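4.2 Preliminary Data

To establish feasibility before requesting continued support, the project team ran the inverse folding procedure on a target of 67 residues. The structure was first converted into the token representation described in Section 3, and no sequence information of any kind was made available to the design step. The complete token record follows.
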């Protein structure tokens, strides 16, 4: 089964690199908090189903009710 969400990391050139698939938004929030502690940067949660960005930022909380 394919994960419905993907964490992307912004590269220096401005493009985004696929970083990690995640199964839900609650876990995406936890994982991004961990990632920003280990590797500073800007992350995006991308919804594979709608092909839309859900959130952008260094640290953020995505409303899990959007799932």
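Position-by-position output of the design step:
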């Amino acid at each position: 089964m394919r994960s419905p969400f993907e964490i992307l990391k912004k590269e220096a050139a401005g493009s985004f690199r696929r970083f990690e698939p995640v199964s839900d938004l609650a876990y995406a929030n936890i994982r991004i908090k961990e990632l920003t502690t280990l590797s500073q940067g800007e992350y995006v949660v991308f919804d594979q189903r709608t092909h839309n960005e859900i959130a952008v930022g260094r640290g953020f909380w995505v409303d899990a009710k959007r799932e």
